[in-house]
Amino acid sequence: MANKRKVIVTGFEPFGEHKVNSSWAAVQELERLGLGDHIELVVCEVPVEYQAVQTLLPALWEEHQPQLVVHVGVSGLAKAVTLEQCGHNKGYRRLDNCFFSPESECCIEDGPECISSVLDMGSVCSRLRKEGVCSKVTVSKDAGRYLCDYTYYTSLFVGNGRAAFVHVPPLGKPFSSEELGRALQAVVTEMLLQLEGGATEALCNHRGRH
């Protein structure tokens, strides 16, 4: 186990109209599929609560010291598997599952407005399409200013950019949980290949930029 690289993948609990959260269903399917013999996969269901995220995310990074953390969330607007390039610090007004929102409306006091992942999501997307493994995949730079964006920014901040966020559509619109699980497997595998290839160094200076 000591020689295995560790990857954390998280999904969210139900909220609002999402009585079954497709993100957690997809992550559970990924857990069943695995990421190969050389990767230790750790999965976690994240509460849709700002204060819980503030506590949980740093603890996950500290305990596991992962090579990469990939967060998965549901978007009712998504028609494809959507790779988010960056997280945003401000604009969090929408109430969470505990009817709470941060008084400051931000993730990290005095943190940069935007933090970009060290991963080049455009490149990940292009390779997945080229290989035909996951054809319905796209890239976004706006994760929505709710718990998805809040979680992503927090993880990028704590993990020095070694995090990713993937938005998935609700179940059956059009993907099943099995299809989403296989798509996640392909996405995370491609992200790990990019990290190992050293293609991320040029993006490190993007921290704090819009």
Structure description:
By secondary structure, the chain is of the alpha/beta class. The protein has a single domain (5-206), classed as Peptidase C15, pyroglutamyl peptidase I-like (Aminopeptidase, 3-Layer(aba) Sandwich), CATH 3.40.630.20. The protein has 5 helices and 8 strands. It has helices at 22-33, 50-64, 121-131, 147-158, 177-196; strands spanning 5-12, 39-46, 68-74, 81-84, 86-88, 114-116, 137-140, 163-168. The strands form 2 sheets. The chain has a 6-stranded mixed sheet with strand order 2-1-3-8-4-7, sandwiched between helices. α2 packs parallel to α4. It is globular. The termini are far apart.
Question: How many structural units, i.e. domains?
Answer: 1
Structure summary, number of beta strands = 8
CATH names the topology as: Aminopeptidase
Which of globular, elongated, flat, extended, rod-shaped describes the shape?
A: globular
Overall helicity: 25-40%
Strand order of the largest sheet: 2-1-3-8-4-7
Give me the CATH superfamily: Peptidase C15, pyroglutamyl peptidase I-like
The structural class is alpha/beta
Strand percentage:
15-25%
**For the report, how would you describe the main beta sheet?**
6 strands, mixed
- Overall radius of gyration: 16 Å
Overall CATH class: Alpha Beta
CATH architect. name = 3-Layer(aba) Sandwich
Low-confidence stretches: 199-210
- Sequence of secondary-structure elements: EHEHEEEEHEHEH
SS element count, helices: 5
